[in-house]
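My current task is to audit a protein record that another person submitted. Please read both lines and tell me whether the tokens look consistent with the sequence. Do not assume that whoever made the record got everything right. I have pasted the whole thing underneath without changing anything:

===
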Amino acid sequence: MKKVLLFLSAAALFAACSNLKENEFEVEGSIDKSLDGKNAILQKQGGMFGVVPVDTVKIENGKFLFKGKVEAPEFHFVTIDGAPNVGINFILEHGSIELAIDKDSIQKSERGGTYNNDVLHDFMTETYRIQNEKQKFEKNNMTAYQTAQASNDTVTMNKLMKQHRAFDEKLSKYSEDFTKENPKAYITLPLMKQQAMSGKKTYAELKKQYEGLDEELKKLKEGKELLEAIENMKKAEEKTAQLKKNEANVAVGKMAPDFSAPGPDGKTISLKQSLGKVTLIDFWASWCGPCRQENPNVVAMYNELHGKGLNIIGVSLDRPNDGDKWKKAIADDKLTWTHVSNLLEWNDPIAQQYGVQGIPATFLLDASGKIVAKNLRGEELKAKVKELLGQ
């Protein structure tokens, strides 16, 4: 970035830093003199409305100054009272921080004076540059896309969408490269956390990168939050891998794994003792709208075909302490077949055993307990049941 933002000499900067004690900061800002007399407000993230005011000073002769103590680097903002679109974000930390706020453009505002704010400014400058390229592309190609859309020219539409996506990919790659190249910068922590939350990188990749971060960053609250997010990735990857493994174990043609769970009366019921000539395992829940909408179709099919050998066992993924809601849904929807539930929602071991990641989900078994179809609905389900019953 431009290393000198305000009208200060290098000697003056050095003197200012040397006069600050440990954990002290000063934020010296410049802004258009037309805003003289207004309040500059120092804010940080938090509170009911997302930001918490920290300090307020008046703008005089196009300048303002905040002073205080800070325990650790943290994102802050300066806004101008009465000018909602004017402001700047920066990292509050020990040292003399310089802000040059452009009243007409956030992108033209500058921050610097300390290591983390110099790095942040470099990051923001390049990010804005790529975003501006994207906006220019959108403006220049809007008519071409609308014309292609009107004529159903999918070749042109796909080409333009691919070019448009390239800007997002460029931003993503820049962010990833930036975090790798700046292992000591505070901004690396929230950027890496975004990468962890996006799922675009693996646990192994981010954990290796985390290990290379500056030790002081790891001690920060944000450093600990990043580590937690990365470790959650590991748990999610392990859970996904197990679900896929379980899903393979319940493929069509496989024998349905036996299970048991409490029924509405608290007595344990197993799949094995619930089998009929044809058996439908129905994963549902009282809170699941699509499940409840499908129930009348299942009820009609059961009433027609139960006497000919169709059995159903409903496995509810109702939430803990929602046993009454589960039982009420059974009564309200007139579901007169066998029911079980561990009341553990998505942590239900039966759902995990069957690789269920969404409901409603069904498994149709033949007389031997072999899975012959999955996730059939309505008339398609009824036709398959009749076929298996020889109807």
